[in-house]
Specification:
- Helix content is about 35%, strand content about 20%.
- It is α/β, with parallel strands linked by helices and about 500 residues long.
- A five-stranded parallel β-sheet has the order 3-2-1-7-24, with helices on one face.
- Strand 10 (about 170-175), helix 4 (about 175-185) and strand 11 form a beta-alpha-beta unit.
- The longest helix has 22 residues, at about 240-260.
Amino acid sequence: MKIAIVGAGFAGLSSAKVLRQLGHDVTVYEKAPDVGGVWSATRRYPGLKTQNNKGTYALSDLPMPAAYPEAPSGAQVQAYLQRYAEMFGLMPFVRLDTEVTLAEPTEGGGWDVTTPEGTEHYDHLVLASGIFSSPFVPEFEGRETFERLGGEIMPSGDLHSLDQVRGKHALIVGYGKSACDVTVEVAKAAESTHVVARELLWKMPRRVGNAVNYKYLMLTRMGEGLFRYRTVLGAERVLHARGSALASRMLGTVETVSSRQLNLDRLGLRPAGQFSDIARSTVSLASEGFFEGVRDGAITVHRDTTITRFVERDGLPCAELADGSVVRADIVLAATGWTQDIPFLPAAVMDRLLDENGDFLLYRQIHPIQVADLSFAGYNSSFFSPLSAEMSAVWIGSFLGGHHTPPSTEQMLHETRERLTWMRERTEGKHARGTNIIPFSMHNVDEVLSDVGLDVSSLVKAKQWLLPVNPSDYRQITPRLAARIADREQAPAGRLREAAR
């Protein structure tokens, strides 16, 4: 098939690699001048690094370089993806600096994809443009006044040099990992650094108790099993026996140790609720230097509040907060999340992609149940995003190759609506329109590979119960799928009929 892929990050490049190995003709469209997606040089802010350790944040065929630090920088991740694209001969099929302006289904099947270079027809379209493609910047009252006085508002990803904040009064909006990471760097150059956090999130040190690497707690199947999934099977039954007593005690211990280590009570930064609440959205590692900066006075956190409006005080730009305080600000960096918009799809298509709540109706976070010849890759925010995206590509290749058949439309709609209802309730609406599968990353991978009829061995899964998941364990999945599809295509008609029976 002739397949268009939109996006050249982890999802787009792994999709191109998998689908090419399965015999398809692919073209990858990327609006940035380099591959990398969220790791592109056009989107990197000072201090950007992975949350995962390098061993788990990789694709199955290419481990991160041994010379990389435990948490690779944004530039290192981009270089890794460039190497991946070159290693598998993908660059001739990647069109950089080429933005898709329109993609629309055509009569008789397939899609017309339009860019400034023209329109081209494809048999199938894979959207790998990502759930983090468009930064969300709130509408602030008084913005015109703020900018008239010389103030500047931008997404945190638009900060590419500390010279942009040097000697200025900086205000960071948000409290997630990106917000705290950029705050640490900004505080090194700004005159003052304030953080406005509508809600505090629980943070975990990279080494809990200055001893245990967090990857052994959160990046294993046991760590995932501490949070109750829709169905509890196998060893997870032990963790959740008697009202989840064992799992609750284990999470409570992590909460106690992390809180003491980060001095959350002394700094007045203990979040509401319990550490187990991270299951509602995502775990966030403590940014190195953040709490130390708060302790030393280089960083000021305004918790449980928001910016009400921008005002002028003595001829200077300031932000008035909902708690009544006024903060001097020359530059505002919004680390306030992302929108999952797909601007190049017609409204009629979007209407069929979304349910009545605005959530994506995607079976397995991949297959749009009511739109033909379209797939999504990487629309599953995960602890193991590269691996999850790659296994999405495997599912797509298996489906297109006739290797597996999804359930009926009615059954897929029923299952997907039930899953979305559960996600909304579990996360209190913080499920990124159905794309956030954290903390159940490996459950998702298991379900995807179960559909395909391929998986790693029980021994490998047992190892993953105690050790961080190694994406290299999955490197034979695509070759095995390619062999099965080839056998199917070469099988005599009688054998196929017998197999069908």
